[in-house]
Amino acid sequence: MDVIESSTPSLPSSAPASSSSSSSSDDENNSNNNNSNNDVIKSPFLRVSAPSRPTSGGGGNEEGTTTTTNTTSTTTTTTTSNTISNTRDPDALFSGGGISFFTGNRDGRFSYGYSSFKGKRSSMEDYYETRISEVDGQMVAFFGVFDGHGGSRAAEYLKNNLFKNLSEHPDFIKDTKSAIVEAFKQTDTDYLNDEKGQQRDAGSTASTAVLLGDRLFVANVGDSRVVACRSGSAVPLSIDHKPDRTDERERIEKAGGFILWAGTWRVGGVLAVSRAFGDKLLKPYVVADPEIQEEEIDGVEFLIIASDGLWNVVSNSDAVALVQDISDAEAASRKLVQEAYGRGSSDNITCVVVRFENLS
């Protein structure tokens, strides 16, 4: 995430191979912050992960958590490969994943994989969450990527609280969209209350996908992004919240704010996204109101949820093409992270891939 006060990121030790308004077009957002370099890549990523094993309850690392809850032995089975945190190398690529079967009338399963890499930044501000649980008797899967700025506090708070608040909302099952809006706003309010007394402002994006039965709800705040593959083609399910988006600029100016060009368009000359959690000094111009898109799962081959460390250098269509033939979701997520680094991404890079498979 790009904020004006950010220091120049440090170069990696040895590492891996591998402005117009925003819109839902496939490649439009990739010219912003496309950081190229000529680093010679001499060694593969150091990958840190644990062998696959059944889990119940959770695990993970400080950037993300995989939580799985088996509803019953006959309806939901999940295995997951969780990353190791007690042997953490700050320059390692962390990855893991799992498989779960659909419940109810749908005959199929989905697999998911995640990878997270500090890259060329001096610190890691990305977090992610993959969670499968039972809510009011229904199996629900939550996937999210949170890209922090001004520190990692906001992103970590979202990892720990956003899906918890959503699943506990009394109308989550019967009015999912309204529950998402209210849970996002409440989580932002709670975070800001917790931040009282903090001298440095911090915030985070949130790109999330919620699987409920045969419906998929994508909710986005900021410039992380969700892209689906349908019939081999890339279909964006979120639109980046950039200050120069016509509707975003109008909203900011109507609230009494302004945007300035400082290498890129920024709210108040500071923040390069127009929506985020936190950022108390930029309220009410920077808001955590999600844009939500509902999709039927039928026809969706896989999802890519990633921070802008990927999207700054890899287009939607390239991302889909790169992993279309990789059936293992964890391997696909690693491939995307490696590709982004190889193309010169200078940001943290975090990616979650979710693949859907019919068994009938």
TrEMBL record:
Q: What is its EC number?
A: 3.1.3.16
Q: Which GO terms describe its molecular function?
A: metal ion binding; protein serine/threonine phosphatase activity
Region Disordered: what ranges? 1-90
Instruction: Give start and end of each PPM-type phosphatase domain.
Output: 111-356
Hydrolase as UniProt keyword: yes
Check the record and name the InterPro entries matching this protein. Answer: PP2C, PP2C_BS, PPM-type-like_dom_sf, PPM-type_phosphatase-like_dom
Q: What class of enzyme is it?
A: hydrolase
Composition bias, Low complexity: 1-39, 63-87
Q: Which CDD domains match?
A: PP2Cc
Q: Return the similarity comment.
A: Belongs to the PP2C family.
Name assigned to this protein: protein-serine/threonine phosphatase
